Amino acid sequence: MRRWEGRTNEPLMWSLFGGGGMLAVFTMPVLVVVFGLLVPFGAFGGAPGTYERMHGLLTHPLVALVVCLALGLVLWHCCHRTYHALHDLGLHPPELVRAGIYGIAMLTPAVAYALCLAS
Amino acid sequence: MSASTVSGRAAAARSKGSDARPEALVVRDGAAPVSARRPYRAPTSRTWFLKTREYRAYALREASSVVVGLFVFDLAVGFVCLHRGLDAWQWWVAMQTRPVNLILTALSVVMSLVHATTWFQATPKIIRIRRGRRYVADGWVVAQHYVLLLAFAAIVYVWLGGL
């Protein structure tokens, strides 16, 4: 029987990372251009127009959950690579740094969803 | 067992006779369990990733994750603002035109495209589709990914009322 102590969590970490990466390549270039450039500079009716368009659908609790999970997955991908890039830079940070970086990836979508439900 | 006087490996070897507990569980002086993993770290220069073109491309791709991650955090803030009402959403949209945010956006445009295009270039190495006796050409596999990216762009564009 296999025991826990000899095992690694890397497959779980890696599949979350892979899923986030796949999501990121298809969505992030679009989201950056739309919400970083087009919407702030008045496309799609600026802030009031986009609010009217998005508020009804995206503020549904289930849709919001899916959006938060998707953002969290992409953030997990980014945090995973940021942590591993530290080793490339010749840094071998203690466990606390690792917990902090992955903690950001887990807490951000969780806190965001909680705030969404609260408002 | 006292592992403070002998090395962990010797302690593990000694304990093999009585109870064969893995080295990972050896506790030194009642402290937290000491990991058995002691990876060898080859001495490398701090700037090894600037040495060749391939290394620089790799470093740029890894650096993109930091920038994209910051933008995802920004999007998460915006998503909460969308829930909090029109005033909050207008505040967030106005924030996107501040110089700091514009720098982040400009970097994110470049870095998200670096991340996406380099990944698309790598996909034929992973996705091998057989049709009869031969494989679908690499270019088609790459093209499919660009089509999916454009499809998502079109959906967002139409949904936000661009058409």
Task: Describe the 3D structure.
- The complex is a heterodimer of chains A (119) and B (163).
- Chain A is mainly α and 119 residues long.
- Helix content of chain A is 79%, strand content 0%.
- Chain A is built from four helices and no strands.
- Chain B has five helices and two strands; from the N terminus they run ααααββα.
- In chain B, helix 2 packs antiparallel against helix 3.
- At the A-B interface, helix 1, helix 2, helix 3 and helix 4 of A face helix 2, helix 3, helix 4 and helix 5 of B.
Provide the succession of SSEs of chain A. Answer: HHHH
Largest interface by Cβ-Cβ < 8 Å: A-B, 58 and 56 residues
* CATH homologous superfamily identity of chain A: Fumarate reductase/succinate dehydrogenase, transmembrane subunit
Strand content of chain B: under 5%
Tell me, what is the CATH class of chain A?
A: Mainly Alpha
- Separate helix tally of chain A: 4
Strand content of chain A: under 5%
Mean pLDDT of chain B: 83
* Count, helices of chain B: 5
Q: Could you say how many structural domains of chain A there are in total? A: 1
Structural class of chain B: mainly alpha
Looking at the structure, the CATH topology of the largest domain in chain B is 3 helical TM bundles of succinate and fumarate reductases
The major pleated sheet of chain A works out as: none
